[in-house]
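--- STAGE predict ---
source: upstream dedup step, 1 unique chain passed
mode: sequence only
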Amino acid sequence: MIDCNTASRSALAGMLRDFGVGRITQAARAQDGRRLIEKLHFDIVVCDYVFDGEPINGQDLMDDLRAAALLPLSTVVIMISAEAGHTRVAEAAEAALDAYLIKPHTADALRQRLIEARLRKLALRDVFDLVDRDEHLLAAQLCQERFESRGPAWLHAARIGAELWLRLGLPGQAQALFDAILKVGALPWARLGIARSQHESGNLGQARRTLESLLNEQPGYTDAYDVMSRVLLDQGLPDQALMACREAAARTPGSVSRAVKLGLLAFYHGKPAEAAKVLGDAVRRGLNSKAFDLQGLVLLAVLQFDSGDSRGLAQSWRGVVAAHAAAPASNRLRRLEGVVATLKLLVDRRVADSIAQIRQLVSEAREPTFDFEAACNVLTVLSRLSRDEVHLGDIHDDVRVLALRFAVSRTTCELLVRAGLADGSLAPIIRAAYADVCADAELAVSKTVESRPAEAVRSLLASAERSLNGKLMDLAQHTLDRHADAIGPGLVLQELRDQIQSINQRFRSYGTQVLLDGSAGRTLASLAKA
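--- STAGE serialize ---
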């Protein structure tokens, strides 16, 4: 139970014990509730909507925990509030809460909501078990079957199934399921799901129109602004994407994850003052929360370096060091610490140590675990060291290696450019590398058109081996799948399949995936994914 009112907590605890709930943990503050949920597993969460004196409300809290995957699917979440307006009730339903009770409520009303929610969770236990074992394909198929047969908790199964299809990178199956759900009822979350599926399929215009229609009817639907910001960014409209991101953050002022996302977007699109303010506030509110993406602390450290705030930079460095110490095996946290350490060493006038630190990071650019986030961070630091006339040797060669691997789309190319803006000479190198990747892809397409698909696949694989670019890996797989009959059965087809499988197993990051190593942050990947 999370409720700032002692009397309310006492009354609720009495009701729950009467229902047979034997173990109850109480929290008076939202942040205390957050820490408990991040640390322990709860079958039921009963949360008040309003917390006096705190910037966060109950819905913001559940949103953050849900976005960071810290609320298990099996947990029942019940929101209690004096707010009886339709908008708030609708928003609560969209946040995947299991029930929303209006004060004053009776014990019978709470009991009934709990029973209904628990029965739904029990009916979906087989799905949850598959998800917990990371058997997402089987879980999605089971949800699909449950929906089509109108089995127990079929509508909730459909929502979970559609989310799983998206997670599996199969937006077509997700959209088909969302479309089927809409025929049952005009549910806003299903319409948002269609927009997400359209976006994942590359249909940006359709996704934007779907979102505009949804927001016209449901202007308070915060999750839709999140998706809209990604669509607008992929359409090459960063200023509008920022506006959508600001709207989402403004509607949920207590959301740590949305604040970090806004700060990152502002940083990469030339709004350093806004980025510093938003990220600073997010650090003060939620640095110790698992919902906080430590990439936000790294970019705050960069901004502190730029402004000459050595004290703030030292504080940010200590925060990253502490996070890495808590998870010493994490490659991601080691690299984040290395990025901030490079800047701090330079401020401390340990120039040789600073150069050695960044050279170590650059040397890892072709390793399987090195990802898009790491590439952006390295470019961010390299450009600042170059700007400050620190001698780095063949920096342009290093930048080209990074760009060849991670410029997999126009969006990722421009984010890499933004990361290196402190040194204006880097942008042409990054864009030229992306142009080379596109030229390799176009050459392979021309060979396919000329009825030489096997040669096209070999060409793509050779380019992918040189660059490690995920766009070329995907195109090789797509070409082989589509033209397998033309290539014909036998050793050639199997040889190409084996080569694709080999490079995918070693480097399958699509150029954008953030390798979490158990950490919470996916924010930069969500900005980059196109």
